[in-house]
Amino acid sequence: MVNGVVIVVHSNDIIRKGLASIIRTIAGIRVVEHTSFAGLDFSANDILGYLLEPNMLNDFRKLGGICAKSKPKGIIIYNGSKIDGIDLPFIETSFSSERIIEFVKNILSNSRSVPDNQDNELSSREIDVLKCVALGMSNKEIADRLFISIHTVITHRKNITAKLGIKSTSGLTIYAIMEGYIEPSSIDIRG
Amino acid sequence: MKSIFTREHRMADLVLSDYNLLPIINRFGIRLGFRDKTVEQICKERNVNSEFFLAIINTYINPDYLPDSGLINVPVNSIVDYLQQTHRYYIEYTVPEIERLLSLLLKSSNTQNLHLIEKFYLDYKVELIEHIQNEESQVFPYVLNLVNDKFRKVNYSIHSFEREHTDLDEKLSDLRNLIIKYLEPTYNDNFCNDFLLALQRFEDDLKDHARIEDKILVPVVAKIEEELNG
Ligand SMILES: [Fe+2]
Ligand SMILES: [Fe+2]
Fold first, then answer.
1. A167/B175 Cβ within 8 A
2. What pLDDT is attached to residue B101?
3. What is the distance in A from the centroid of ligand 1 to the CA of B213?
């Protein structure tokens, strides 16, 4: 089951209103309509996805950082035909309303296929924090070592995990060795 | 969201919809050869509480599906029995199978990163076994004493378990991530694919297992504790 906001951005009033009224029938979903990106609030954290007009895609990608902030589960393009070079899910104009509903539900509930092309490179500060984590230091120890607050350490750790997709401390340690950030000999290798 | 199964569905259709349900069905002592019998009919034959069976199946298919309060009527013994069967399946089948696939993979590619992945797995396995042993030796006996003998251990409640209950699937997802992103390309494709599929299946199964512990066992036992106190 899904809960949250779907933002429908389309310059054609009839298409936009039609799509919005179909998607509104899905339980748990609120729809916000916009004619363009101007004045759109991307920062809400319950944004499930966007439904866009194809020619808006470039603008949307330019706004990429915003997309990462609100972590939408899906970006869907509405158009009559498939466009080359775009691998986003597609609603064709021939789709019935039932089919649109099924389609949108499927994409929004499938958290495994998050289209995620943001820059996942760690910053140099994040690498400093990662090294400390890998060496088994506590948040307090890391804060003291790097002269930053514990709160900042926690924020860095969250960002590292979001970028790498690795949540556990032992997973981060293995990653740090694989990427040569720390020496294998500096941790306790069992077995 | 995928469909929700009811008593009237045919058991064969349920299995055809997702083969990953097979080991789950086996834990109830249900085996193939269903003909056109419904869930209700098969459950009756096998002496399985169909409400509980469907709750387990439906939470597996739809992680967000949670059966409503009706579940309070399921005997706690059945819940514990199912959880123990699942533990046994992990120890006797899943873990050895994952290790068999990992050792094939290691034989095909003798690189540092793969050895690091092996180390990560072995540390995880220690944690997994401790987790299961704690539930088998502390939590389940407490629960069974409570229901069967109305005996309540002092200074312990199911909420202590709930508080300390750790995530076992998180590290499996880390493991998959490390393999997919950082393996050196000298490995054997088929061994690696099988290994990843086995990890994925285990991760999904563990998530379902933890949901049953947290969302079914805990509230049912908490309610019994309340009644005994009251
Ligand atoms: Fe368990
Ligand atoms: Fe558990």
1. no
2. 96
3. 7
Chain centroid to CA B70? 21
| Contact list, A166 vs chain B (CB under 8 Å) | 174, 177-178
ipTM of the complex: 0.85
* Closest-CA distance of chain A to residue B171, Å: 6
Which regions in chain A score pLDDT beneath 70? 1-2, 39, 41-45, 57-74, 79-88, 110-119, 187-191
- Assess if residue B5 is contained within a domain: no
The CATH architecture that domain A4-108 belongs to is 3-Layer(aba) Sandwich (3.40)
- Render pLDDT for B176-205 as a digit per residue (tens, 0 to 9): 999 998 888 888 899 999 999 999 999 999
Residue B3 has pLDDT above 80, yes or no: no
Identify which of B171, B166, B163, B175 has the alpha carbon closest to the alpha carbon of residue B210.
B166
For residue B135, the enclosing domain spans 75-229
Which of B62, B123, B181 lies at the smallest CB-CB distance from A170?
A: B123
Are B97 and B84 in a shared domain? yes
Query: How many CB atoms lie under 10 A from the CB of residue A186?
Result: 14
A101-131 burial code (b ≥16 CB/10 A, e <16): bebbbebbbeeeeeeeeeeeebeeebbbbbb
Residue A137: predicted pLDDT? 95
Q: Are residues B66 and B79 in the same domain?
A: no
pTM: 0.69
The CATH architecture to which A124-186 belongs is Orthogonal Bundle (1.10)
Residue B116: which of A1, A165, A178 has the nearest Cβ?
A178
**Interchain contact A28–B (C-beta under 8 A):** no
DSSP string, A87-105: -S-EE-TT--HHHHHHHHH
Task: Determine the residue of chain B that is closest to A188 in CA distance.
Answer: B119
Residue of A nearest to B179 (CA): A175
